[in-house]
Amino acid sequence: MVSYFGIVPEGHSLDVPNGVLGMLFYTYSFIRHFKKKGPLTGLAVLFTSSINTIICTLAIASSIFLARKLFILRELCVVCVSTHIINTTLMIRAILEVSSTGKTTKTQ
Asked: How far apart are CA 99 and CA 55, in angstroms?
């Protein structure tokens, strides 16, 4: 998907399959869920509410793109629908977290 949008050329080492991007996203979400609150130094900055919202926005955008492709093809993929539901849930949680804190620097 990365080369499809012209971010990197096709065949580039960063042109990874969608599954790898998904595994990175869900690993990030898993680590963020269990991350303890603490000072925002070093890598802890990656787990702020604002960064989480940006990452979830990218994930939901790719879900919408892929769901549209499946709709055009008239295909129903149970795994894909489940993934879209999970991504939507994570996005809603990110938005609620940012709106409930009033600050975008609080970690979960």
From this structure: 16
